[in-house]
Amino acid sequence: MHAVLHAIGVFVHHLAAVHWQALGIAVGCHLVKLCAVSRAWRNVVAAAYSDARVSWLRMLGAYVAGTGVNAIIPARGGDVVKLAIAKRALPEATYTTLASTIVLMTLFDSVVAGALVVWAVMLGVLPGLNVLPHLPSFDFGWFLRHPRLGAAIGGGVVLLLVVGIWWAALRVEAFWARVKQGFAVTRDRSRYLRTVVLWQVADWSLRLATVYWLLRAFSLPATLHNALLVQVSLSLSTIFPFSPSGIGTEQALLLYVFRGAASRTVLLSFSVGMRITLTAVNVVLGFSAILLTFRTLRWRRAVEPDRAIESPG
User: Fold this and answer.
1) pTM, to two decimals
2) Taking Cα atoms as reference points, which of 298, 305, 286 lies closest to residue 30?
3) Structural contact between residues 277 and 218, judged by C-beta atoms closer than 8 angstroms
4) CB 225: neighbour CB atoms within 10 A?
5) Is residue 203 very low, low, confident or very high in pLDDT (cuts 50, 70, 90)?
6) Which of 241, 185, 4, 202 is nearest to 109 (CA)?
7) First and final CA of the chain: distance in angstroms?
8) 220-269 tens-digit pLDDT
9) In whole angstroms, how far apart are CA 159 and each of 148, 178, 181?
C-alpha cells in the first residue's frame, strides 16, 4: 500500500506534464468500449431469452454499474450488482442463466488475453517466477514467497468451487438447463460471430486505442507494441484482483515490462494516472447507473432482497 500511495504522489507531482487532449481522447475510446462490450452482452442475453425484449440501454446500465463497483471493490464484487440490475431489466431471467452469459463473454476475453500473454512470454518481457515474488506492490508476492501454503490455499478455493457447483447441480432444479440457456447464441455460429464476437473484437480494439492515447497523454512512446504490452499487464492484474482493479500487480508489472524504456517516475505517473482516470470514469458511470436503477447508492442493501426473492436456480 505504501508503494501505491507513493506512486499516487508521483502522479500528482507530474500532473502539469499530462497532455489533456490525448487523455480526453483516451476517455472517449474507453466510453465507446463500454458501449461495445455491453452490446455484445445484450445480444447474448437476447439469444438466451428470445421471446423477451432485451433493452440495450438497461444492459448498458447493468454493465457499467458492475464495472464501477469492480473498480473499487476487489474480488469481482461488481458482478453481483451487474446481475441484479440485469435481473430487474429482465424479470423472467434467472441468475443462473445471466451468470452463464457472463461466463460466455469471459471465454472470448480469456482466449484473447491468453494469446497476448503467450506473445509476451515469447518476447521474454514478462518477469519469471524467480522475479515475481520480489516485485514491489505485487499482489501475489506472498503466495510465491510461501509456495506450499499458497498452493494449499489455492487448492482449498478450487475445492470449494467444485463442491459448490456439485451441490448446485444436485439440488437446483434445471440447473444445467439454465446454464446451457446462457450459451444459446452459440448454437447459431453465424449469429454468434456477427452479434457477439464482432462487438468483442471492437471492445478489444478500443481497449488498445485507449491505452495508446494514455501512453501519449503521459509522454511515453505510443506504439501498437507498447499498447499491447500495457494490455498484457492489465489483463494479468485482473485475473485475481485482490486489490481494487488489481492496481498493485498492474503497477509492478508495468514497471518491470517497461524497465529501461523510461524513468521510474514517468512509469509510476503513467501507471497510476491510467488507473485513476479509468477508475474515476467507471465509478462515476457505474454509481450513476446504480442511483438511477435503485434510487439509492447503497447497492448492497438494494441487491440482497433481489437475490433473496428468487427461488433456487
Assistant:
1) 0.79
2) 286
3) no
4) 9
5) very high
6) 202
7) 40
8) 989 999 999 999 888 877 765 545 554 566 777 787 778 777 777 778 78
9) 16, 23, 26
